[in-house]
Hints:
The chain is of the alpha+beta class and 391 residues long. It has helices at 18-27, 46-49, 60-65, 67-70, 122-133, 151-159, 200-210, 222-231, 271-286, 314-331, 376-379; strands spanning 8-11, 35-39, 53-54, 73-81, 84-98, 101-113, 141-147, 168-179, 193-194, 217-218, 240-245, 248-256, 263-268, 298-299, 301-309, 336-342, 356-367. The longest helix has 18 residues, at 314-331. The radius of gyration is 21 Å and the shape is globular.
Amino acid sequence: xxxxxxxxxxxxxxxxDNDALCSLSLRTPMVSDIQVAxxxxxxxxxxxxLHGTFAADVTQGQRDSGEAQAMDTYTATVALHEGRVVGVLxxxxxxxxxxxxxxxxxxxxxxxxxxxxxxxxxxxxIAANLPGLYPELRLDCIMGVVLRGNVRxxxxxxxxxxxxxxxxPAGAFHLVQFMMYRPYRERRGxxxxxxxxxxxxxxxxxxxRFHEGHNFQPRMDRAWMDELLRRTPDYSVSDLSLVREGxxxxxxxxxxxxxxxxxxxxxxxxxxxxLGLLAAGAIHxxxxxxxxxxxxxxxxxxxxxxxxCAPGHEGTLCDLxxxxxxxxxxxxxxxxxxxxxxxxxxxxPLWKGFSATRSYSQVVYAPWNTGWDATPEQVGARPMYLDxxxx
Length: 391
């Protein structure tokens, strides 16, 4: 541990801190096999607004009445040294199902420290001040995602604030990047529809039944779906593709381009990826497909926002995915489609026949301040739900 300094820790100010936080995000890339930075300009807070109300905007009356605890909120806390923002911890708070009952969960999605201040106690200072800044906040559990290879972040999850959070392992997610440089053979006679508003009840029911029993899933009902569509820019019912059999929906895939709120910028690639990009460039010359991504430029990607099928229709879901990927490739706008699947997800085995690269992330968790507890074995006993487009 390096030199510890004194920091001023406070709730982030949407107006005063925005530019500093956008800059901080770009200067602290995600460290893994593929290194990428996140460009959140012009509004760092736009991504978090998808999750609910900024805790700084919650009124005292809502806190006193207990209404704040039932709201979807997020927090953003900054550390300053000599008046300069040198670190941030921002987290979304979600109401999710664990073992059939509702619990309150926080997902920290930005734990960022200026490079010259790393290992100088910035995150420890923020964590020590959280109970005082948010005394009304009651959380059963805090969870975080650490990309494979990011040893510094994994160590920080265990050591940065041992009196508040000691990360326990919760298993691994496979981050699957479906490539846009292969044409897929489509099933003859398959009818792929674009969803309409009148389909939303059936789509929501399909999602709820498919994810039933997953740990940490939201309560999937029509109110949840309507609110999600209302909050999410550039994602609407028309971004859902469906297949019906016997008049009922048996497979659904929803793709979201979130370029309006954040962009990933590739900064470093291992040699295997560089070879793949060279091959992608050659394929692009002869096949309708996007130009290969370049280091230092934003990646254009689509996220598997929703994906589900009825029991026994896994093959139909794969057929639908082939059609969706072909359409994305011919659109020539997106470098890849990606999704995240827990190590025991029933979806994970379906992608073996697709051209894709994989990276991995470790999920860690810790109980917080309500008395809720679970062992790593209990947490990993069921598939885990996690919408990586919101991480």
